[in-house]
Each structure stands twice: as C-alpha cells, then as structure tokens.
Amino acid sequence: MSKLQRRARKSRDRVQGESDAFSQAMTFACGPVMFGLLGRWLDSVAGTSPWLLLAGIALGIFGSSATLYYRYQARMMQLDAPKPWNQPTFANLASASQRDIAEAPLDVDAYINTAEASA
Predict the structure, then answer these.
(1) Nearest to residue 61, comparing CAs of 86, 38, 36, 97?
(2) Given 3-state DSSP classes, what are the helix, strand and coil percentages for the chain, each rounded to the nearest 5?
(3) Are 56 and 41 in contact, with CB atoms under 8 Å apart?
(4) Residue 28 class from Cβ within 10 Å (0-12 exposed, 13-18 middle, 19+ buried)?
(5) Domain ranges of the chain
(6) pLDDT digits (tens, 9 = 90+) for 27-67
C-alpha cells in the first residue's frame, strides 16, 4: 500500500468516526427532547403537569440508550467478524453438529496452505 493510499484511508476512517460520533450524539440528545416535548404537550392537554413530561424524558433516555447499545453491539460484531478467533477451525468443527458443519463457511485449501506455511 502506497503512502498516498494509507493517508487517504486514515482520512476516510477519521471522517467516518466523526460521522458516527455526531450520529450517536444526536440520537442521545434528540430522543429525550422529542419525547419530553410530546410529554409536555400531553400534560397541557390532560392537565397532569409535570408527570407526562418526566415520563417522556425518561422514555427518551431509555430509548436513546437502547439504540446506542444495540448499534455498538452490531458495530463490534461487524469489526470482529474477520478476526481469527471468529473463524471456524477443524478443532471447532470436530465438536460441532452435522448441521453446524454444513452451514460453516470453511475454505479448506486456505486452511491447508496456512498450516503448511506455518510448519
């Protein structure tokens, strides 16, 4: 990889990180505000001030937190997928059921080439 390609990749990763951070910040800020405003409006209609406002804010915080948590989990699974500890090996397949073996994507030639190269 050339120096220019490395610099472009680093810049792209930085911009992607800033975009993700902004998206997460807006998710965490907008949820409670929107549900709080909805609660305030419902309070004015029902005359239950400030209970629906507080319930709306609590619901917004809970929803935003859950959204951020599940996004984080999905991103970590995506980043960990190509890691060696997530790849099937013959040792793992020996203890697996027949259905698991049939569904497992295993490139036997690549495994043999890797084993020969390390020997």
Answers:
(1) 36
(2) 85, 0, 15
(3) no
(4) middle
(5) 3-83, 87-119
(6) 889 999 999 999 999 999 999 989 999 999 999 999 999 99
